Amino acid sequence: MNDLNDIPAMTENELETLGVLLEDEAERQDSFDFFAVHGLITALLTGPVEFDIQRVWDCAFDEKLGFTSVEKATVTELLGKMIREIRAWLDSGQDFPVPSELTLADEEDEPPIESWAIGFMTGVMLQEEDWYNRDEENVAESLFPIMYASGLFADEEEMADIDDDIELSDQVCGGIPAAVIDLYLFFHSQG
């Protein structure tokens, strides 16, 4: 467990730069925005498979990138910093600081938490067998708030019932930070 003061935080300027570059790329082609990339990286670091940055590039971006070489170098550097920060938070054992409001009650087409959760669930689905083979019930239970927030399972009756109650929806989304740490500890604690 790390001291929270030792967590290597990205600066506001770095976050803004990365956010703008990822947003521009998402508008150019069908790629992940900042929140979805953050969620994807969080899932890949949380899960049982050794982290590989290439999976992020393959999954989050179109094969033909719209970045200039300078932009790609900047994105690569900033993703490296983001990975170190996320890993340090996971190692801290503290509730994970999701980089958005924990609510779906947003005027935007896609609230940032939904985008983050879609990125996270994409990471889970990339390695589904590895995620579920040790204790499917426990993992599914811990994943529930993230599954709900992603909207990917909105057709399921249980999810629709939650959607009908804003307070319950916010309560479920509010469980995401603890759920991330529970999953990380499940996969990475020795014992």
Automatic annotation (TrEMBL):
Transmembrane segment boundaries: none
InterPro entries: YgfB-like, YgfB-like_sf
One Pfam family recorded for the sequence: UPF0149
Protein known as: YecA family protein
Gene3D superfamilies in the cross-refs: YgfB uncharacterised protein family UPF0149, PF03695 (1.20.120.740)
